[in-house]
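chain and backbone:
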Amino acid sequence: ARRFSACTAYRIEVVSHDVVGDMAYTACYEHISASVDGEARVYTLRATQTYRREDGEWRVVHRHGDLVQA
């Protein structure tokens, strides 16, 4: 987290999602403009998150993201 700062733009593009009972997932692209190690960058992550409903609230139980190579 210390490597990232000055996020100037963030947009999420949901590709797929589903809910089955108390489990859910999202698969998306995250389009980001931020500073990484002090250098301004624009990049896209392919991100998947899984969720579980606990005590009536959704909680992220796993997240995976990787850089989309242009």
